[in-house]
Amino acid sequence: MYELSRVRLYSIGPAGARYADTVLDLRGVGAPVPDPAPTQAEFFEEEPVGPPRRPAPAGVLFLENGGGKSVLLKLIFSVMLPGHRNTLGGASSGVLRKFLLADDCGHVALEWQHTLTGECVVVGKVSEWRGRQVSNDPRKFAEAWYSFRPGPGLSLDNLPVAEATSVRPAVEGVSGAQGRRRTMKGFRDALTEAGKAYPHLEVHWEEIHDRWNEHLGDLGLDPELFRYQREMNADEGEAAGLFAVKKDSDFTDLLLRAVTDTRDTDGLADLVSGFGNKLGRRAELIAEREFTAGSVDLLGRIVEAAGARSRAREVHTGAERRTRTLARRLSARAVRERGRTGDLAQQVTTAAHRVTEAEGARERSALIAAELAYRHASLALAAAEKGAAAQKRELADARTLHSAWQAAEAVLRHRAAADRSARVAAAILEAERDAAPALAARSRAAVDLVRALHAAAEGAEALANEEEEKSGALQEAGEAAHRDATSAATEAQRARSEIGHLRQRLGEVEQETAEAVRAGWLDDTAPDADPARAALAASDAEKSAVAAWDASRAAEPPRPSARTTRNGVRPRHWRARSGWPSC
Question: Is residue 549 a contact partner of residue 495, using CB atoms and an 8 Å limit?
């Protein structure tokens, strides 16, 4: 059983209220389908989620009088009840022709959904005026009906009513048909091509009313149900008016019209006549039936016994025939077996000779096979040795290559280190080249300083010798100056110790200065840190110290002394001069 799922109306309807491209959708609001059949979605359609649902079980259309309710029902009934005489409402036979203009090719398509499996079928009607001219001649009004199973390739949404069909999702109020409208022939050709390309569509085209009614019955859509609907809505009244009968004959007529085909009344008459004759002969027929039943029972037993006897005879005859045949076959087989025994004995003798020859041949073949195996093994051994040697060479090459790859990293590190060392050496050379003038100036200043220090030390030593000589002379002058002379000798000795200490300290200072300059702690280019200037300052201090010493010696009274040292040399005395530069 099917339920109406969708209705599509295209380019049809009264002149004042036409259906350009209208779809009435009743899907997805009913109960779920109990046994859904597998379906394949369209290419641009989303996959269905959950089981399909039945269409709306009922619907109400509220419109004012003249709003188009009867027009919609007329168009739907024109698909399920073809023919002008089945037009809903009124007695006008040309009412459907008024819904089509001269340039129109009207379409009414209905999509039905099965209540159990959810499978859909589309049935539709297409109509147009021949010659593109409106006429009162009904023969110029062309009608045709079609049906197909919607699926990939064709559905109610993409009917080929126009030259192009949009593949985008349907939008309410926007037609999916684009381009010029197709004629009936163009529509039929497009439908036929789709049926050839997609056999699962089961496209069917029909132009005759009776054949279309039969096809609807084959699809499972009974047109008689719509006939009752047409009769109930003939005067736009209630359904109860269909069964409002005044007498029994009217109800009988209604029942006969519902269960019989009005086109075949002769068959119904014959059937009723035959049934009446049988009722008149009912007693005679009952007696004949009882006699016939008893006869059939007895005759059945006789037939069963005769059949059993016939089967027994056939079994006996067949067994005798098979026995005789078996005896003849055994005799013939004994003769054949005797001849075959002699042949077998001769064959055994021949086979013994052949076995002996085969043994010799087998031995020769074994020797030949052994020789071939030996040579084959020798050749295989030689080939294997060659292969082993080649593999050894490949292994050695591979190991060499592996060692080279292992050493590559060390070589790269060595090269990188050598490059860094070269860059550092170049940087050092450039730095030394840039610092060469400063180093030379520093060396010259250090040489001048050492030379000045040596000169000062030698002058001090000479002055000390002179002073010692004067001291000896003064020691000889008197015993009173002995204490002063002793202290002067002590001071001279201390001065010598200080000279040695100062020389040692001078070397350390020079080394520390060089290390400080090398480490960058002292700037040898600064004026205050110039060694030459330090040497000049030391020379001036030395001169001041000598002058002060001379002044102090001049102020002391002369005290001669004849004391000598243990070795016969008078000791040298020199006093530490004040103002000596300290490090």
Answer: no
pLDDT at 459 exceeding the cut of 60: yes
Smallest Cα–Cα separation from 155: which of 203, 220, 206, 94?
203
Tell whether the model's pLDDT for residue 203 goes beyond 90. yes
The dihedral through the CA atoms of 304, 305, 308, 313 has a sign that is negative
**Tokens in use for 487?**
């202290």
Number of helices and strands in the chain (H, E):
9, 8
- When the pLDDT of each residue in the chain is averaged and rounded to a whole number, the result is 79
- Structure confidence at residue 18 as a pLDDT band (50, 70, 90): confident
Give pLDDT tens digits for 62-108: 888 777 888 888 888 888 888 755 555 544 445 678 888 888 899 99
What's the pLDDT score for residue 278? 78
Predicted local confidence at residue 94, as pLDDT = 52
Please state, in angstroms and as integers, the Cα–Cα distance from residue 174 to each residue in 49, 168, 178, 187, 267, following that order: 26, 11, 10, 21, 54
- First-to-last C-alpha distance (Å) of the chain: 126
User: Whole-structure pTM over 0.70, yes or no?
Assistant: no
- Concatenating the DSSP letter of every residue in 197-252 gives H-GGG--EEE--HHHHHHHHHHHT--HHHHHHHHHHTTTT--GGGGG--SSHHHHH
Structure tokens at 424: 């550092």
C-alpha 57/C-alpha 66 separation (Å) is 26
Name the residue among 437, 457, 459 with its Cα closest to residue 449. Answer: 457
Beta bridge partners of 10: 21, 107
Amino acid residing at 10: Y
Closest of 146, 129, 147, 149 to residue 138, by C-alpha? 129
Q: Does the structure show a pLDDT above 90 at 474?
A: no
Percent of the chain at pLDDT > 90 equals: 11
Residue count of the chain, please give it: 583
464, HSE (Cβ side, Cα atoms, 13 Å): 24
* Rounded Cα–Cα distance for residues 37 and 151 (Å): 13
Is residue 205 predicted with pLDDT exceeding 90?
yes
For residue 97, list its beta bridge partners.
Answer: none
Residue 79 and residue 125 in contact, taking contact as beta carbons nearer than 8 Å: yes
> Do the beta carbons of residue 223 and residue 210 sit within 8 Å?
no
Domain ranges for the chain, please list them. 2-244, 281-384, 442-555
Q: Write the CB contacts of 206 (distance below 8 Å, at least 6 apart in sequence).
A: 144, 145, 146, 212, 215
> 2-244: what fold?
N-terminal domain of mukB (3.40.1140)
The DSSP element (H or E) to which 112 belongs, if any, is strand 105-114
| Integer angstrom CA distances of residue 412 from 348, 421, 422, 423 | 88, 14, 15, 16
Handedness of CA 288, 289, 295, 300 (dihedral sign): positive
